[in-house]
Amino acid sequence: MIKRSIMIATGSYLPERVVTNEELCAWVNTSDNWIRQRTGIRQRHFADDKELTSHLAIKAARHALEMAKIDAKVIDLIVVATTTPDDTFPATATKVQKELGAFNGAAFDIQAVCAGFIYAIAVADNFLKAGQGSTALVIGAETFSRLLDWKDRTTCVLFGDGAGAVLLRVIDANSKDSWGVLSTHLHTDGCKRDILYVDGGPSATKTVGHVRMNGKEVFRHAVSKLSSVIDESLEANGLSPNDIDWLIPHQANQRIIDSIINRMKIPTEKVLVSIARHANTSAASLPLALDEAVRDGRVCAGHLLLLSAIGGGLAWGAGVVRFGIPVHSWCYSK
Ligand code: UT7
């Protein structure tokens, strides 16, 4: 027998306020046409001033707990992927823990920007497989609007706020059972940190700072690095693109997604895309797209998912997951 982390439930939350491209034109020298053509984005959600990353994270977590029909008390580990924590310290995950009353084990944040959710899944999966707990709550949550420079039209139109969550539960599986998180693949190249960064922080400037990006360079690396990590994860599992039910790519730019799926020969019908409605929500991008597709019935138990994301660092990664609960090994009522 081997240990596997199965993905038993998902949840998400978007702030109520929707800002369309047209509305942005009142603040920034841009156009709906430019934003749609260059990115695929039509609108984004922005948190109000009193709505913090932890609030979004807690709401997404509650949705996942409701779906799983489990009590927060069974959670042993909370990992929050975020670039926009409520405070410099302690971790946003500590607020999530307190609000949910999930005091069994540890709660901490992970910072890998837009790749944060994949990193958080990898960490939680490895904790569970190592026997350090049986249930993990993994959240990607951002109030990325706080980092935007409204004088920089090349970045401020691209991002939005939101949160998504998944619950992982460890099972003893037969080595041939291909359920749950099958593999994760993480990469970082610190030499590329200057093409996407925030120009502030408690140590460097004592301020929060704003997003700075060389869009063309990031675009180029996003296409090549995501294509290569998708290849790597397929190969590691002896799979071909045909075996995948859904590719869940980071929702940064429709043109990046199109370039990758053209290269990889993955049909558009197998790709979850939510960028038009959410824009780029950084660490929340993958779990938001996943939760929507689970709730509207596109993603079903037994489907094979390939998640991939890239962001500042550069940090990128992918994960292969067979979604849902294998009926023979565990059920919600246990
Ligand atoms: O999650 C992290 C990962 N981030 C990404 O993956 C983002 C990757 N990069 C991109 O998505 C694209 O590079 C952008 C969407 C950021 C930019 O698209 P682009 O096709 O690379 O445009 P560009 O930067 O080459 O700019 C083309 C033109 C420029 O005008 P000129 O010099 O040709 O006259 C820009 O000044 O578009 C202009 N422009 C805009 N015009 C209207 C740039 N931003 C805007 C804007 N509205 N918001």
UniProtKB/TrEMBL annotation:
Q: What is its EC number?
A: 2.3.1.180
The pathway that the record names for this protein is:
Lipid metabolism; fatty acid biosynthesis
- The UniProt entry lists the main location of this chain as cytoplasm
One Gene Ontology cellular component annotation? Answer: cytoplasm
- One GO MF term: beta-ketoacyl-acyl-carrier-protein synthase III activity
Listed GO biological process terms = fatty acid biosynthetic process
Entry keywords, A to Z: Acyltransferase, Cytoplasm, Fatty acid biosynthesis, Fatty acid metabolism, Lipid biosynthesis, Lipid metabolism, Membrane, Multifunctional enzyme, Transferase, Transmembrane, Transmembrane helix
Q: Where in the cell is it found?
A: Cytoplasm
Q: Which residues cross the membrane?
A: 304-325
Q: Which residues form the active site?
A: 114, 250, 280
This enzyme catalyses: malonyl-[ACP] + acetyl-CoA + H(+) = 3-oxobutanoyl-[ACP] + CO2 + CoA
Catalytic EC class: transferase
| Beta-ketoacyl-[acyl-carrier-protein] synthase III C-terminal domain mapped to chain residues | 234-322
What's a Pfam family this protein contains?
ACP_syn_III_C
- ACP-binding as annotated region, ranges: 251-255
Keyword Membrane included in the entry's annotation: yes
- Positions of the Beta-ketoacyl-[acyl-carrier-protein] synthase III N-terminal domain: 108-190
Give the record's family classification. Answer: Belongs to the thiolase-like superfamily. FabH family.
Assembly and interaction partners:
Homodimer.
> PANTHER family, per this entry?
3-OXOACYL-[ACYL-CARRIER-PROTEIN] SYNTHASE, BETA-KETOACYL-[ACYL-CARRIER-PROTEIN] SYNTHASE III, CHLOROPLASTIC
Q: What the record says about its domains?
A: The last Arg residue of the ACP-binding site is essential for the weak association between ACP/AcpP and FabH.
Q: Which HAMAP family match?
A: FabH
Which purpose does this protein serve, as stated in its record?
Answer: Catalyzes the condensation reaction of fatty acid synthesis by the addition to an acyl acceptor of two carbons from malonyl-ACP. Catalyzes the first condensation reaction which initiates fatty acid synthesis and may therefore play a role in governing the total rate of fatty acid production. Possesses both acetoacetyl-ACP synthase and acetyl transacylase activities. Its substrate specificity determines the biosynthesis of branched-chain and/or straight-chain of fatty acids.
What protein is this chain from?
Answer: Beta-ketoacyl-[acyl-carrier-protein] synthase III
Q: Which organism is it from?
A: Candidatus Endolissoclinum faulkneri L5
Where is the organism placed in the taxonomic lineage, from the top? Bacteria, Pseudomonadati, Pseudomonadota, Alphaproteobacteria, Rhodospirillales
